[in-house]
Amino acid sequence: MFGVSGKNKPVKIRGFGGNLKYGIAAKDLKELLKKGCNLLQLPLSGARVCSYEDGTIVTEEFFSTLPDNSELVLLSKQQTWTGVICDIGQLLNTDRHADALIQAAKGLLSDENSSKRRKILSDLLQNLEDRSELESREEDADWFS
């Protein structure tokens, strides 16, 4: 099945953990997987594509509804992607300035009018707090309630 307009659909694809995006045009998901695996040198067997933004797995039906130039991530069999938060989490895990980035994200939360961006940043900050060492109700009231 062809894209909405009956021709190749242009998308932007990247590999897991990669910063570079590549433009690919494909008539269907099968062709996108083949071209993407060839470009990123991944095995085709078990490969899949998901949305960069939220990690939704792209099916053939979903592919046909994607807007042109959607950002996608090509994953090999063993890789998983949970969306842009995964990308931010990787950055924070490797960056020596993680605390400054967290503070900047908190600042964006208070200034931003976009509810979608606030939701993503809130989820990120909530998932970044390491509370594994806390053991009592006094130390972590949220967990015990």
UniProtKB/TrEMBL annotation:
GO cellular component, one term: nucleus
GO molecular function: DNA endonuclease activity; hydrolase activity
InterPro entries: CIDE-N_dom, DFF40, DFF40_C, His-Me_finger_sf
UniProt keywords, alphabetically: Apoptosis, Cytoplasm, Hydrolase, Nuclease, Nucleus
Keyword Plastid appears in the UniProt entry: no
Main location as per UniProt: cytoplasm
UniProt superkingdom: Eukaryota
Domain CIDE-N: 7-83
Biological processes, Gene Ontology terms: apoptotic DNA fragmentation
Cellular compartment(s): Cytoplasm; Nucleus
Subunit structure: Heterodimer of DFFA and DFFB. Interacts with H1-1.
PANTHER family xref list: CASPASE-ACTIVATED DNASE
Function: Nuclease that induces DNA fragmentation and chromatin condensation during apoptosis. Degrades naked DNA and induces apoptotic morphology.
Protein known as: DNA fragmentation factor subunit beta
